[in-house]
Amino acid sequence: MANDILEGRPRCDLPHPPTPADGLVSAVEGTLADFLTSQIAALDAMDPELGSFARTTRDLVLAGGKRLRPVFAHWGWRGVVGDREPIGPVLPALAALELMHTFALVHDDVMDDSATRRGRPTAHRLFAEQHDSAGRLGDAGRFGSTSAILVGDLCLVWADQLIAQSALTTTTLFAVRARYDHMRVETVAGQYLDVLGEAQPDEWSLDRALLVARHKTAAYTVQRPLQFGLALAGHTRADAAAIDDAYSRYGLAVGEAFQLRDDLLGVYGDPAVTGKPAGDDLRSGKPTALLMLARQLATPAQRAELAFDPAGAVNPADGSGGPRPAGLSRLRERQPDDTAVARQADIIIETGAVARIEALIEARVAEGIAALEKAPLHEDALVALTHLAVTATHRPA
């Protein structure tokens, strides 16, 4: 049943987006590759070890991903300027959002001690492996975590430098930086709330989990990139406030739906597609909206099986977990607690929480699309953002 629910098929007919996403993504990745080549050369000239460090960082940045933040920023910009403006002057700023995203991912993986990202070892695991292979002194895990933190820091600095390469007027650049800085603060704030939730899960609630989703994911994935794109347009229009408001309402709704889908994929997604182990959120006791809603809807017996242990992880009350449900075979068998995790995942479905989350996603997508209906946007951007509202929230990874 879970697999049927999570196939991620859009539930409405969509117009084809006006510009192939692959072209924009290729342009962003080309800009990143050129920029990173110059940065690697500069660090290599300082010391070969720094060049190696920079090359590992480059590989992490270019290791794939949906590139959603530049895509949303691009359409936020196109919604104002139309389809005739050349993209070249703003391309560095769009690409810079991917460097900021890498900063957030690498630090998040250190905090969660995640083993994989996009189907590859996480940054701290890569550096730990390098430490072992080189026969260096000291603890490999500590070296890996320390190096990964520095990777994230470096990406954040590089993002600043890349934005500065955009061909913008000083006034526009200041407006763009204001949006960008706001986005960075909200991302850190949301991440802290996420960490806090794991430290005091019994004090968390569905409303609190949704608040984390808005700040940690919705704002910096959809809402703020759209407004970043609006700032890139550099136009002083009488209707700019109406566009800003539409972007804000669309961004929060679609961004929240994006995170709710992520919550579902974190439990039921196929690791071969998501690039991350299934069930890690349950193992760590992360108080996601999915889990909070399941506990709210659960019977007393179900709630006991979804209870948090003192260490913060969820475990069945009797420790056994029961048999693995056939419909949850995607949960991996590499850890001894996977049968228990599979049982918890099955209970979450039984409570009706998965169906409720799916309904919330549909409602948020509809709310986001409705927010654009009367906005004074160019038609291409309206079509593209309508398409993205559905495809970004009905995805297998």
Radius of gyration: 22 Å
The CATH topology turns out to be Farnesyl Diphosphate Synthase
Secondary-structure element order, as H and E? HHHHHEEHHHHHHHHHHHH
Number of strands: 2
Helix content: 55-70%
Q: Which class of secondary structure composition applies to the elements?
A: mainly alpha
Count of discrete alpha- or pi-helical segments spanning 4 or more residues: 17
How far is the first residue's CA from the last residue's CA?
18 Å
Percent strand: under 5%
- Name given to the CATH homologous superfamily: Farnesyl Diphosphate Synthase
Question: Uncertain runs with pLDDT below 50, 5 residues or more?
Answer: 1-12, 310-336
The general outline is flat
Strand numbers in spatial order across the main sheet: 1-2
CATH level-1 class: Mainly Alpha
Q: What is the residue-averaged pLDDT?
A: 87
Largest sheet: 2 strands, antiparallel
The CATH architecture term is: Orthogonal Bundle
Q: Tell me the count of domains.
A: 1
Explain what you see.
The structure is a single chain. This protein has 397 residues and is mainly alpha-helical. The chain has one domain (2-391): Orthogonal Bundle (Farnesyl Diphosphate Synthase), CATH 1.10.600.10. It has 17 helices and 2 strands. It has helices at residues 2-5, 21-46, 48-61, 68-81, 91-112, 123-133, 140-164, 170-199, 206-233, 240-268, 271-274, 280-284, 289-297, 300-305, 338-351, 353-372, 379-391; strands at residues 116-117, 120-121. A two-stranded antiparallel sheet has the order 1-2. α16 (353-372) packs antiparallel against α17.
